[in-house]
User: Fold these one by one.
Assistant:
Number 1:
Amino acid sequence: MTSALLAWMIFSSCADSQPIVTVESPDGRLQAVLSIDQGKLYYRLQSGKESLLGPSRLGLETSRVDFSQDLVFDSCTSTFDGFYDYNLPLGRQTVEHKPYRERTIYVKNRSGQRLGVVFRLSDDGAAFAYHVDGTGCDTVLCEYSGFGLRPEARGYLQPLAAGKTGWARTNPGYEEGYVAEVVPGTPSEFGQGWVFPSLFRSGEYWLLISETGVDGGYVASHLSDSLVDGNLHVAFAHADNNGPEDPVTPIVTLPFTTPWRTIVVGRTPERIAESTLSQDLVWPRYRAGAGYAPGKAVWSWLVEDDPGTTFENSIRYIDLAAKLEFRYCLIDALWDTRIGRSRMSELARHAAMKNVKLILWYNSNGSWNDAPQGPLHRMDTREARREELQWLRQTGISGIKVDFFGGDKQQGMRLYEDLLTDANDFGISVNLHGSTLPRGWDRMFPNMVTAEAIRGMEASKYDAAKEAARPFLSTVAVFTRNAVGPMDFTPTVLNAVMGVHGNRIPRVTTAAFELALPVVFHSPIQHLGIVPENLSEFPNFVWDYLRDVPTVWDETRCLSGYPGRDAVLARRKGGTWYVAGINGENCDNKQFDLVLPTLGRAELIRDKAWNRNAVERLQVDIPADGRISFSVPAYGGFVLVIR
């Protein structure tokens, strides 16, 4: 018997107290069962008789009150049944009349002070948050929220990098690789824990653990890498994040409610990819200051690096965007010195004549990184930021890409919220890079159009090992990072070799794999890695497809997939379905057997035999039962368009 199993059995038996409250999902399949054992508050998550999470700790401690021990049951509210109804203009799914069920449980400590624990269950998962009454300010010293995973559970996890490490001290940027089949309690590579979201396969179920609703009023959290009484637990940002003077514990104004801790539950990985729990639980913090439009963008930096940021080359890419009828062109780092502000106004006028909108890159930095790329110190203070945003609006710039954030402390969360709020005042959209996970921010902040928080395509042009791992990472991201929010992976490089300066790294994926990514990955502004020379290298049907493929969706279904192996997503916009799949393994002729969401005549784009950088188009009639099969090469893909 392993030590982990023994600890779980002992902990389960000692916490096997009489339940005080049970909260069920609307369909009755999920139950959160709360109990108090020896003065400590626990919950279990189960599906019928199947235990999804064993005894899992609840509670918190502040500088004023201790809700970690000596607790007794006080009261609970009646069950409240509600519905989610919303449509995110930049979303991947319209949510209509999605039911949820909620109860708030109150416990008291030995001083008679009261803690509220809100549990809300929908058919795709559970969430909980704490509420503390009072007046004035307080400091949350520790949160005891835990997740009692079964001993046989295995994780698909990204290690949290230490702050002030990596290139120019830009970590943590949520850009490490994923580790598969992690035994809970295994130390992470950097000893800092695991980032959210954290995916676990447990028995016949899959669990995606994360948080949502974080803003400047709290700190961003992560998952510990050590077990405490059989639990992995929520941990606050480390001292090495952000400024050294910034506290690691959040300072709150009473009364306060914490962000939601979320557990998405699915019988299969496909159900995890379809969940909208991270968006369901939050609400917009302000009205959109402009009509933030989705669309596709071209940019030179991904392939051409810093030398590509010139006035003349930017004209080429603006003209490429116009030719392809893309909405955006991103001008990346160093534009302030390599192009200059006066000539940027000239570029903006040229783009406007071509019906293309410009996005400009900025360094976020104050004292938290040493990255030399500019513009510098234009986004880290409110006075400089609003002056810059005013210039952007006057120049006709539609959005900004802000990079190299400093970590997960509360001060970092305030910077994100202040940046997004200020930008909205000027009608400027924001793309967050080198950033933390966007925890529900695509609904909370209407001008947050996308965010990185993934080891995206740019890593491949510097490191052959990272390019070799990219197909695996791409399939894992469908069920982890992209399952909780938009992801700016910057996909679809059609050059057979990554980069034109410095390293020359062969692309390991096929052209059809690359063409599938704008459907497989959701990002309201999809930055594609194509270059002007590609226009003559691929047939017209490729450019027709890229011109037409949407970046926001009315409906999303995951038809099949397994993290690290493959993924097939079906997304609908209006009356057209796009079905795209990728093979993340070095396994030739992998068979994809699918049941499609609609019938009709379809256009199939697939890899061309014997040429990994060529594709062909076929017309396909979908049979009456909707069943269809594809054979896909190693690291290959396909796109099926059903109109």
Number 2:
Amino acid sequence: TCWHQHSVEETLELLVSHPHRGLTAKEAQRRLAHYGPNALQESPRPTFWHLLFNQFKQFLVLILIVSAIVSLFLGEHMEAGTIMAIVVLNAALGVIQESKAEEALAALQKMAAPEARVVRDGHVLTKPARELVPGDLVILETGNYVPADVRLVEAVNLRIEEASLTGESLPVEKKAKGVLPPQAPLGDRRNMAYMGTLVTYGRGRGLVVSTGMRTQFGMIAEMIQSYEEEETPLQAKLDQLGKWLGVGCLAICGIVFGLGVREGRAPLDMFLTAVSLAIAAVPEGLPAVVTICLALGMREMIRRHALIRKLPAVETLGSASTICSDKTGTLTQNEMTAVQVYADSNLLYIIGEGYRPQGELQEEDGRRAELRWYPSMRILLQGGLLCNDARLELIESDGGEDSTWHIVGDPTEAALVVAAAKADLWRERVERQFPRVAEIPFDSQRKRMTTIHRLPGNRAKSKEVAAPDLQTPYVAYVKGAPDVILRLCTHITEDDRVWPLDRPRRERILEMNEALASNALRVLGIAYRPLEELPPNPKSEEVERGLIFVGLIGLIDPARPEAKDAIELARRAGIRTIMITGDYSNTAAAISREIGLIQHGEPVLTGEVIDGLSDEEFAREVVRTQVYARVSPQHKVRIVETLKRQGHVVAMTGDGVNDAPALKRADIGVAMGITGTDVSKETADMVLTDDNFASIVASVEEGRIIYANIRKFVY
């Protein structure tokens, strides 16, 4: 059932549940017996004997076994022993390799909530999540993992981190009311919450609609387990080589035997001669040499920041003709960053990478910009810093080296803290001058957040004054969607003074907002209001009116600087790069243009469009499409399978649970070692230790060297 297309009332009716009392304990027990536990089920793993039998299916190995038996028959015990030692060693290596069973399912289960707060018989109880059943009413709060797939019946400022499931880089605002069309993409289902995702803000209640293997997580687990291992290009070519060698040996031996008998030699002598020739022609050392080459290549790959989990993957990477890459964290830095600020009719650029608070403000011509030249910029950055709940922390390493900056809180808010720090506005120092005394939290209906601060007593000596003409004891800072903030403003700061916000100024701000948004920036507006007194119980309608507009801040998850060169290097090597992301199409298009993947005007295919295409139509689109946006795990698998049917050797990269089925289905799955979930790492053939697309290209280069070495030996 497409639960997102049903209203709350319809969902309650279909599930026969109560919006306040939930299910009765007796009914819950009955449903648990019918539906089974809310847990992921594992398919039976292959036995030791099954794994061992698989090692002797290759044609080349069969030839070696036959030659060992014939050698034994001929009395060549040393020869027979040597050949069988190679066969047994090769089989042992293969069994050890394959017996390291993927723990993808165990990693998925770890992401599921162990317990859940559920309403039964009108009472709130804490129950093991595996006991949840369809129709249960569960309570969701900040910091909780969603215990099953639920249709929301209440959402108060609810935001859920769904990146591992949908690939979207920011937490999603949820709303209980409203219905959505059946074909709505997974990332757009605002009235649903899915198992394993994390509540980052607010609270809510939801009706359990799917449990266990019927959840989105369950579907992914089923997809992972349903795909069988396929031969790598090297394995296929070696098997083909074995068949040619076998046929060639038999043909030559037949000719030698026939010529000898024709010349009058004894048939038995000629038979023994022909068999000896056949044994001599069999390359007993080939499997061993291939294994050694791959093992040495694996060691070299580690130097290139690639950890190989499966030996044949070393060569497969060298054969790759197409790399399907996730956007967030692979082609981008996965660190939301403020990159442009607009205030007082000036547009400045914020230079610096990610969450490191090192950088500066620059003008359009690249010259350094000082805050003292732009008073409104100081108010803008200070407002974004104070109207904010995120923190920036320096994590010291054991030896004091390689210390890293980490964020605590929402990535968008963290970007504002970092932007202020780059302008030498540090949270601890500014908050001491402007302590927070009240706040009106973010609300998805209002689309804004307000904090109220006490101003320092001696403002004339303060370097952090909110505005030159501000003489009140309190100030309220407001942050939110630019169009919403602008509607609440009556004045604007310009030229170190406050002016009425007339129509020309308002239109100029809206034009700049449109220009920033067209470059796939997430834009926030900042405003403030002087307050003569602190309201005892601040209300939105009292505080958020008559605001003074300050400016706009544009944020984006920036592209990795080395990604552009890596894509160009891959292109020159005959390797096509494709971006597949769960993010919005305009964001995907902007990033892909920045890294040189597509040009202006080239299409971006969305998951909604893919759903409407037949297999034949989609096969034609795959040939010319470089960027896919707003896609689901099923879409990713369909893209990979279509490319494989067209003869491509596909490498797929990813970091989330949603990437796992495509990682498994691709010729080689590449997971991110830093930001990747345990699920993606356990499913993949290779793990990147630096989460860098450039490392994939370097690994392909190394893989081609290994393949060339093996081919030289075969020749």
Number 3:
Amino acid sequence: MNGRRTVRFLLPYWRRLALILVTVSVAAGLGVIPPLLVRAIVDDAIPGADRGLLLKLSLGVVGAALAIGLTGVLRTYLNTVVSQRIMYDLKLAMFARLQSLSLRFFTEARTGELMSRLTSDISGIDNVISGTLVTVFQNVLILSTTLATMLVLDWQLTLVSLLVLPWLILPTKTVGKLRRRLRAQRQQQNGSVNSLMAESLGISGLMLIKTFNRERDVLDRFQRDNKELMDLQVREALVGRWYFMLLFLVTTGGPAIVYYAGGVEVMTGAVSLGTVVAFVALLSRLYGPATDLMSLHVDVMTSAAYFERIFEYLDLEPDIADAPDAVAIGRASGHVRFEGVSLEYMPGKRAVDSVDIDIAPGTMAALVGPSGAGKTSMTYLVPRLYDPTAGRILLDGHDIRALTLDSLRQQVGYVTQETFLFHASVRDNMLIARPDATTEQIRSACESASVMDVIDGLPDGLDTVVGERGYRLSGGEKQRLAIARVLLKDPALLLLDEATASLDTHSERAVQRALGELMGGRTTIVIAHRLSTVLAADVILYMDEGRVVESGSHAELLALNARYARLYHEQFLTAEGVAAD
């Protein structure tokens, strides 16, 4: 199965592969010439004291070797090009598949494991995927031409030479299975080590480790995991050594047997000395390809673990994808409706439970309530980062699952509580929202978010690299830059998850003014713990345990004198108490 799938990656390069096979055929034909020339030197030129013939034959040996070498260089070049392009195609296919998967997959997967499959797994099959066809063809040709030449020289010595071949074949299957199992274990452990490194050497993980003084514990864990990986690598390297030692004995003992049998024939005059010398020279072309074919079988079997891991990911089907008849939506008015919407991250545990809400175009809806009430999960559902377990969500009367993901997400601007910035320049981070934006448009968005003064103070302005996850900027500066990014996108629907939580009072007021201008005529869903930021919302939805338990304007909910009113009074009484102190 994997073999047929691997061939699909080879097919685009069939012309280069055909040329490689031509070079292999030429090299195989040239390879039998030097032993025949050596035979002529030993049997004709030297006994006949013919210096001219000796010179010609010697130059022929050098010329044949040069031709073989040049052919090998061309084959290596072509093979390397094909190999690297196939690796490129595989990495691209896997990366594209991973990007197509939903957040659900990434919340369950480990980053280090993903990196391991993208890098070491694909690198591990480099030689096999690109060289198997060439190696098989090359060795079959060499074996065929060598056997034919040997049979012409002396069929009895040929049979003697073939007696040792079964010893090259018998242990292969057992060794291959064992190495395949160890290879799979090693790759799994390698993924664990990579995950630990990614978590503990990332800035957030490193800060946690240092602040809790756990460097020694993490180092001990890394030492244990790395030692287990080392032990698996040693076992894998040694498991076939006895087999390869047998191969060495066979390929060494074979010429000795031929020397003895051939020597006896020379003594009786049955064959010439040159024939025996040529025969021994040809043996390397017999045992070498046979050994390579057997080793190739072992390598293919052990590399099957890599193929299984790679195709396991390539076989993953996105649980969120365009429907076959999905349509693109133009600029939306922003009418959002939830009808009986539920979401389960784990079976039987609902993060959102039977929600029915209707948010009119151009209005602001605020989601409030305790942590874990399902507020952020509600915002995940709108751009289809997750799909509802039950119910449906409508945008301008269209079920969002009937819209193309590209057109749906083009309508949405999302600012999360945890701002993420790539390790790139400010400009590059802004262009994620709008790749064709001009410098003036970027500056305008940044000015609206009250962050342009910060950017102008950076060493290279918009071209300053912000560092991994934006750690060269403060929390408030990163948040303002994230808001500027959404302002640049100019979406029809805004999702703000505590978008101003990291801002100081002055910056928050400036950003709120900018957001006020942006929200004009646009539908906005805001998550806020500080109720002061949502008092002017058209509708406030109080959520608890995944349900909307109260809804209405601020005045209406205060008049209801229930959960929202209690939360409001707690916050403002606390604030007044602090102010009085």
Number 4:
Amino acid sequence: MRRALRWLGRGAAALLLLLAAAGAGGWLWLRTSLPQLDGSIAVPGLTAPVAIARDAHGIPYIRAGSERDALFALGFVHAQDRLAQMELMRRLGTGRLSELAGESTLGLDRTMRMLGIGRLAQGDLDSLPPPVRAALDAYTAGVNGFLATRRGALPPEFWLLWHAPEPWTPADSLLWGRLMALRLTDNWGTELLRGRLTERLPPERIAALWPEDPPGAPVSIEAADMASRADDAPPGQAWPRPLHAELPLPEGMSPGADGSNAWAVSGRLTASGKPILANDPHLGHSLPNHWYLARIDAPGFTLAGATAPGVPFLILGHNGRLAWGLTTTHGDASDLFLERVAEGRPGHYQAPGGPLPFEVRDETIALRWGADQPLTVRATRHGPVVSDLQPGAAAVPPGHVLALAHTGLSAGDINAAALHAAGHAQDLAQFRAALRLLRAPQQNVLAADSSGTTAIDMPALIPIRRSGQGLQPAEGWSGAQDWTGFVPFPARPQAADPARGWIANANNRLVTDSYPFFIARNWPEPYRAMRIAEALAAAGGLRPEDAARLQLDATSLGARAALDALLRAEPRNDRAARAVERLRAWDLRMDRNRPEPLIYAAWMREAMRTVYADELGPIFPDWWSDRPLLLRQTVAQDPSWCDDVTTPEPETCPERLGLALEAALDRLERDHGPDPSRWRWGDAHQARFDHMLFGRIPYLRDLLRLRIASDGGNFTVNRGGFAIGREEAPFEQIHGPGFRA
């Protein structure tokens, strides 16, 4: 027995040693997937040697003898560092995720096949001029050069999926722009919401939920600064007849635009006498980052700033002569049309001139661990039939379907040519000529050049409607609200060297009411822009470090507006009274180390629910968000919203806001303990970074997730976006700057 136990112990020890050796071997094998940073690599396809150096942060500096070799090298380093990200982007855009992930991504694949993103990108190649095709070909050769010469393991994502990537193609690089056009055009989600609200509220009540900017709110392009003016305004804008439709979309594909800050300051306000451009685009957090920093130098060719993995063009940055940055316009560049199926002719739909046949194509989605999935895609003259995504689930009237018109779904997109030309521009005149090629998404482009000129342009497509403003789904069969064309480029919003010496946009209103074309009914609340305008209006001797400091500013003018309403509450006890006194003394800084931002955010969350949920009913969770301008105007101008329509007795705003404070403090005590002096905004407001693939896998998700306690909020220049409508972790930062320059 003793000998048997001894041998058993030896066997167990040997097994442990074997497992440890296997684990160590696996770890060492996976480490071979890391990029080679030293020495030389022989890669076929280069015309001359290229030097790639990396700084302490891993940012590559590429020096090449030609532009062609420089773009080849950019493709090579993108593939070295972000191959899995590029592969998943490619498969998302072409609707081929389910070949790797099985049924869990089938909804996303159906969406992409229905929208036709992969087909559109492939067709875009034929619209591009030869120099742009050459750039795409050089980059593609660099990506494939890495695939052909790599040694060791593929990145862990490929090992987990048991998959090796296919060769890269030029069309794959065009998918990124198409996906961003979808992501950065959010108004069709609002159209659905407005349409649903028509069943519960009259038009004037719905309009009140999206209030106009307060008096004095900044406008990025004042009427006097417009560089050109349209000759004719579009037809009069009439309110459409209310129509109700509801469309559930797969997770991750609901429209939701993102934000950004950008400003350009004239040299007469800077210490150097040269202009300063600042930009920090805001997107949902991800791991790895959306952006890839790089610098490229070749004879007569320099690019430095933010690239996108999979794309051979600079998106944000400078070319040694001029710099540019972007913010999202939040313009109305998509519309939903309710189409009536022709009676007795199910393959046709009604149009103004009579029935038309649906455009139909058949798709097949390969499914890992399952049978291939057939998909029939239909389209009308307005666009793809999005209600076919989940037949029977969409709340569309019987005998009708819902079609999507979207500037990002038009054929022959030449955004790649615009980015290529922008990178080669010698001055702002050439740069602005390049912008004429942009189509979607709508972006405000701020720029400055070494001659001292500053400018802002909104160059993308702006639909002109026969009537209406695309505020909710429209009757497709009448043609009354059809798009009749697009605003001519010279008439699109643009300005240069304004008299005040600076230009700024933080997704706020772009133009004054005197602008003759419709861009948007409502704009994001203007509080970030107000804070930037305060700083720039007082500027003198501005330095780059001053701009960087402003990008990190955490003062919330949105909180100031909301507190004008909240502090009218009637505290119901001493606990509430102490919380109110804290907020009266608060400096409005969303400081991660202070309790006041947490008390404010929790109160604001409950106030929105207490004041508006009774009127909105089951629609409220989809509408629920942080709206200080609305709350302030409600309490000051229309307190009828505060009355609870489900009770016979009338209630006042001070009463209801007092109840909201009680609910907020109850939750804070539950989550953070009974002592408010120990509460910290950063305990609840943490930027969360989930891996794009491993973030969906239990245990591995928690092991690799990164969290950082952060300053800021929805309305601070240092954007720390959170979604108060989430029941779990409503203050978690899910949105913010991924790049600052």
